Every structure is written in C-alpha cells, then in structure tokens.
Amino acid sequence: MVTISGVNKHFGELHALKDIDLTVDDGEVVVLIGPSGSGKSTLCRTINRLETVDSGTVTVNGKPLPAEGRALANLRADVGMVFQHFNLFAHLTVQQNITLGPVKVRRTPKAKADERARQLLERVGLSEKADVYPSQLSGGQQQRVAIARGLAMDPKLMMFDEPTSALDPEMINEVLDVMQDLAREGMTMVVVTHEMGFARRAANRVVFMAEGQIVETATPDEFFDDPKTERAQDFLSKVMTH
C-alpha cells in the first residue's frame, strides 16, 4: 500500500528524516512511536504530500506521489488523515463536515452522502449529533467526527497523527476504541501515537523512531517485551508504567 524508500527531509539545518525505508502492506496497522521530535509526524505527513521530501521516493498503492494538481487531490482522497486538532469546519454541522468531501471531490450525490454520513456517525457512536456544530461537542466527540469524515471518502489508507494528544485523559479511550474497531476490520492504518497500550493491542508492527531515523521495527510483543536497541530500551523505561 505504501512504499517509502531512501527518504530524506530537511527543515533548514534540521535533518528531520534520514534515509527512511518503510513499507506498509494492505490491511496492516503500523504504529510509529518515539520521543518528540523524532520525525514521526513528518514521516506521516510525507505519505500524502503534506510535506515534500528532499530525496527518495514515496509510492501509495503502486503510484509515485504526484507533485500537485488533480492527481494529488485524487491521491489525498484515497488517504484519510486524522490530525491532532480535529480540523473540523466550525461553520458546518457535523453531518455537513462529513459529506463535504464525498460531494465535492468524489461527486457523490448528496442523498447518498447524507445516508453514508448517518451510517458513519452511528459507527463512531454519535448518531444523535448530526445537526450540531463542532463547538458543541467535546474533544473526544470532535475527533470521532474527524474519523467519520476521513472514512466517508472510502480511503484505501487511514493516517492518524497523534489523534489523542490534544484530548483530556477521560476522552482518549473513546477515540482509541473506534480506531481499534477499524484495525480489527482490516483498515490499512499508519498511526503516530504516544498510547503504548493501543500500540500493543492494535498494531501489526511497531516502528520506533529517534532523531529522524527508524531505529527498530518489530511486532508489538517483541518490541515491548524484548526491545533490541538501547535507544528503544531507554525510551520504554521512561514511558511504560510498570
């Protein structure tokens, strides 16, 4: 589904991504973890070209990332993205937020898009919120709407960039539960998160990054029970509450 090879990215002096090679298979859940500033979010954003790369290649579904224009818009329609800060349109209702993409980009008839929005709201546990505005929802509810909005485009891949880090602790699980259901249903997912429990339960593969590099890649059990590198051991000793 995604092949990243030899990718480098600089922000001025900062070498944010260093020779990154990563593949994500169809139906796989890959969780990126690591200390802040390790390049996880930047890597996530290169997959749908929210960040350009200085060298190397990114292909999605067998096609190289287009530079711009309609081809890029089409690619982005296939890659759902859920951000840290929801990014919902404040002036649109929940239902309008979800139907906007399908109607505008996919040219879905409005009645069909509305019907799909209702199904998705039910799926994320918010059927009664179709006609309210984002400001009337809690953070956890807004993030679940953002997930429904991503799914409305029928993406081939869903990306989550720290989807729970802006939420109050008691709202985190309601979002992770929805994500876990998606993972179980076989959605291809790339998730940047600090939630180690989620990584352990939902990931097929954990990719540990530090200082712009992929340091270790393993199954969740291997990674959490027996990390191979000192950098990963050090990280886990700080984040895992024993």
From TrEMBL:
Its EC number is 7.4.2.1. It catalyses: a polar amino acid(out) + ATP + H2O = a polar amino acid(in) + ADP + phosphate + H(+). Residues 2-236 form the ABC transporter domain. GO terms for cellular component: plasma membrane. Pfam families: ABC_tran. This is ABC-type polar-amino-acid transporter. Keywords: Amino-acid transport, ATP-binding, Cell membrane, Membrane, Nucleotide-binding, Transport. GO terms for molecular function: ATP binding; ATP hydrolysis activity; ATPase-coupled polar amino acid-transporter activity. Belongs to the ABC transporter superfamily. It is found in: Cell membrane. PANTHER family: AMINO ACID IMPORT ATP-BINDING PROTEIN, GLUTAMATE_ASPARTATE IMPORT ATP-BINDING PROTEIN GLTL. It is a peripheral membrane protein. Its main location: membrane. It comes from the Bacteria.
